[in-house]
Write a structure and sequence with these properties.
Length: 419
């Protein structure tokens, strides 16, 4: 067990807290929640910040609740958005909620005294009556107060619909409903949620005369100032079908030196001593990227499991280490490689013509392929091909099926001999 807020602070995950929050968490086990917006059927790496908040809440001896917004998702949170969201249909929201439920279940322990809960606010929001809601909840909010909240204030010039303007009331009501049902007295969320969170603590005080608190986590940017979690290919998803475990691993292993130690604190459960040791190794030998590899393995394990992380690590080693002996690789490594790098299939062709292999795998002309061979820049299964070679002997295939073909230092392809 750890002190929740102190743990967040040293991991650079603490941004704001309501007055008295430290004493509230120190007084005994607290039930706290964090909400997740079902705008897609998968979470992305940016969602790992609040997820880690819930993980540390539970590790500190408190009970976490992950709330998926099957109700609020029908409205759309204006926080951090410059324009109105496109409203989603009920069926799409329900599909997205199902995807989020499955992913959130990987991170928390649902057993024991501090066992987590997964809750959908559609249970109470979709059955609300408008008149009763406006009378019982709306009366506690003044327009002046709502217009001072950042999520509303930032949209006044460009315009905000009444639908999104009312979102704050719904999220505040979530807090009240969770308090009534499960004894929730704390909410955590991104720093852009501060206005919504404090609206909820105030509503609990007014409607049920109880104390409640909020804690916010920072919105992450990289050292270069770019938005965290975005790549040239788009978002980095937690769904393996959208971002493969290998590509997920690569996202972390490619972290900038200036970000790596911070990411180790934020996105792993490694202790101070190990992180300090990795920081020292990074400073002494940044080219070895030991800290990035440890980061990538730890986060991939957390999201996709140990086996997927080890496979992604092994595939990465194969791609970037020219000394790897292809004949020692397991079948699942080749199957993963075929989905991630160029692959040329040879059905019934024995032996494989070298020029054909280079042409199909890399799109080279015959002239360019011959030139590479004469330069000694082509290797198969880790062995450089002589300039005069014409064919690849099938006897050297790994598992009687595959070869690793390399062009130069960085380009690699799989050759598959199909029946």
């Amino acid at each position: 067990m750890t002190d929740f807020l102190s743990e967040l602070a040293w991991r650079e995950l603490l941004y704001q807290q309501t007055e008295g929050a430290a004493a509230h968490f120190a007084a005994g086990p607290v039930t706290g929640y964090c909400g997740f917006d079902p705008t897609a059927a998968s979470l992305h790496v940016g969602n790992l910040v609040p997820i880690m908040g819930l993980v540390h809440l539970q590790r500190a001896g408190h009970r976490p609740i992950a709330l998926v917004g099957g109700g609020t998702g029908m409205i759309g949170d204006p926080s951090g958005k410059a324009t109105e969201r496109q409203l989603l249909g009920v069926e799409e929201i329900d599909r997205n909620v199902a995807g989020l439920r499955e992913q959130l279940g990987r991170f928390l322990d649902f057993t024991g005294a501090t066992g987590a809960r997964l809750v959908d606010n559609a249970e109470w929001l979709r059955t609300l009556h408008a008149v009763e809601f406006m009378r019982d909840v709306g009366k506690h909010f003044t327009i002046n107060l709502m217009m001072q909240k950042d999520s509303v204030k930032s949209r006044l010039e460009g315009g905000i619909s009444y639908t999104e303007f009312s979102y704050m009331l719904l999220q505040a009501y979530d807090f009240v409903e969770l308090h009534r049902r499960y004894g929730v007295t704390a909410q955590i969320g991104g720093s852009d949620q501060w206005g919504n969170i404090t609206a909820g603590t105030e509503l609990i005080r007014r409607m049920v005369q109880q104390e409640a608190h909020g804690v916010t986590l920072p919105l992450i940017t990289t050292a270069s100032g770019t938005k965290f979690g975005k790549t040239e290919a788009g978002s980095v998803w937690l769904d393996a079908a959208r971002t493969s475990p290998y590509k997920f691993y690569q996202f972390w292993v490619n972290a900038d030196d200036a970000d790596t130690v911070r990411f180790l604190r934020m996105f792993t459960l490694l202790g101070r001593e190990e992180i300090d040791s990795l920081a020292a190794a990074l400073a002494a030998a940044p080219h070895e990227r030991a800290a990035q590899r440890r980061l990538a393995t730890a986060v991939t394990t957390l999201v996709h499991g140990r086996d997927a992380a080890l496979l992604a690590e092994r595939v990465s080693q194969v791609i970037f280490d020219r000394r790897v002996d292809a004949r020692e690789l397991h079948v699942d490594v080749f199957e993963t490689l075929m989905a991630e790098i160029p692959c040329a299939r040879f059905a019934g062709e024995r032996p494989i013509p070298v020029l054909d292999a280079l042409e199909r795998a890399f799109g080279l002309s015959r002239t360019a392929a011959r030139k590479l061979l004469h330069q000694g820049a082509v290797s198969v299964n880790g062995e450089k091909l002589p300039a005069a070679i014409v064919e690849i002997d099938p006897a050297g295939a790994a598992h009687n099926r595959w070869f690793l073909l390399r062009k130069g230092a960085r380009e690699i392809a799989v050759l598959e001999m199909a029946p």
